[in-house]
Here is the input.
Amino acid sequence: MSAASDHIRVFVPTSLNELLQTFKAYPDAQVYAGGTHILSTRNTPYARLPEKVLSLHQVDELRRVTRTEKYIEFGAGVTLRRILDLGPKAFPAALFEAIQTLGPLGIENLATIGGNVCVSGRLMTLVPILYLLECRLELRSASGARWVRIGRFHDTNGTTVLEPGEILTRLRISPGHWNRQAFKSFGTIYLSETDPLVFCGLAHVDNSVLADFRFAITTHRPSFIRNRALEAELVGRKVPLAKRDYEVIEAGLAAVMDEQSIPRRTIQRRRAVRLTEWFAQQLR
Ligand SMILES: Cc1cc2nc3c(=O)[nH]c(=O)nc-3n(C[C@H](O)[C@H](O)[C@H](O)COP(=O)(O)OP(=O)(O)OC[C@H]3O[C@@H](n4cnc5c(N)ncnc54)[C@H](O)[C@@H]3O)c2cc1C
Here is the structure.
């Protein structure tokens, strides 16, 4: 199904198959989920659609949420409101909190989980927590399907690895066994001058021992600040952590931030350390 005005052509497929065939025929069409990112970044004095729009709204297959013992799966077109309506117990608390704090009130009615991940050029608010939850993405085109880890979905410039004619169809996370979770965000994601930073932490504490621990931080740069060697070093330690554990955290973070050329003595660097240490203090 398609509608046209003088300059804008809108395709509104009603099945996944029709969507993929339409995208094959018009690979230059802009995939349009909630449109909240697309319209907010169009450089026009008023909201104006791209010339060819491929709407996901009528594709039921993209609007499903499935839960099994091993994973939770979201259709890419599931709105953030729908996820919030399922309640805080249905998902890892840090994911729920990330969705709650994303953007101005009301945006969750339109914005989709897939649209958040597919933004090119930067890692949006939900990406680091999905990364910690080992999210895998199903990408489909008219010629087939593939699964990609979210950590490999954006290249070093932040560009997504989506090929022409390819759509993100499903996101699969593993809920895990986390009994300590944290999510914090600062600044405005679109404005680097506000020093945006997102912190996510997940841990499992068992009998006063840190049985599992991971954290990820993102800024306006399209990369994750994460140090798996540091995480592994802390696993098995007694909680509350000792003074020397905090020294390990500081050194491990400094190493990864130096590697990514994040300038020293910046607010983002200080926040990254403080938040990781703050999360470490919650582990008791
Ligand atoms: C005032 C304002 C504040 C905001 N603040 C935040 C914030 O703090 N944090 C944050 O993360 N976001 C923020 N956003 C951006 C946006 O609302 C969210 O990122 C939202 O989740 C995007 O989802 P969407 O469905 O609206 O995506 P859309 O705008 O429809 O699409 C985003 C991009 O992904 C592509 N796309 C969408 N779905 C698919 C798919 N299934 N397959 C392939 N490509 C696809 C589109 O072509 C487009 O390039 C803000 C937006 C506004 C207007």
User: Anything to note?
Assistant: The chain has three domains: 2-55, 60-173, 180-281.
